[in-house]
Amino acid sequence: MKWKDYCNKILSTIDNANFYNSELKQMGLDFHQHGDELKGQCPFSDKHLSGKDSVPSFTVNLLSGAYFCNSCNSKGNVHTFYSYTRKLSRADAWYELGDALGIERPTS
User: Fold this and answer.
1) This prediction's pTM
2) CA-based Rg of the chain, rounded to a whole angstrom?
């Protein structure tokens, strides 16, 4: 499997709702689900001038897995979220996500 196919397989296999619900709960953040979106406190407190998101500004689209913070302008997907919150390199984040899903690593 090629690298691009590997990354796309991870993004199409992962359950976005379970991933974000679990991650945000572990971080102890307040959030709620409204339809196909999660809304709540931004998990990237270091990107906020006050050191935290005092007015919940973080939104996740559970269908696509994309997130955006209206306060600090952070945006990304499951991979960027995982990489940033765990302080992993891009490749290591892909590998950890793929391994957790049981997806064979790329050969090239």
Assistant:
1) 0.91
2) 14
User: pLDDT for 50-69, tens place per residue?
Assistant: 777 778 899 999 999 999 99
Classify the phi-psi angles of 33: left when phi > 0, otherwise alpha if psi is within -120 to 50, otherwise beta. Answer: beta
Q: Are 39 and 24 in contact (CB under 8 A)?
A: no
Q: List, for residues 18-38, the tens digit of each pLDDT value.
A: 999 999 999 998 899 999 999
Residues 74, 44 contacting (CB under 8 angstroms): yes
Q: If we measure between CA atoms, which residue out of 85, 90, 83 comes closest to residue 27?
A: 85
Residue of 64, 56, 67 lying closest to 31 (CA atoms): 56
Task: Sort residue 63 into left (φ over 0), alpha (ψ -120 to 50) or beta.
Answer: alpha
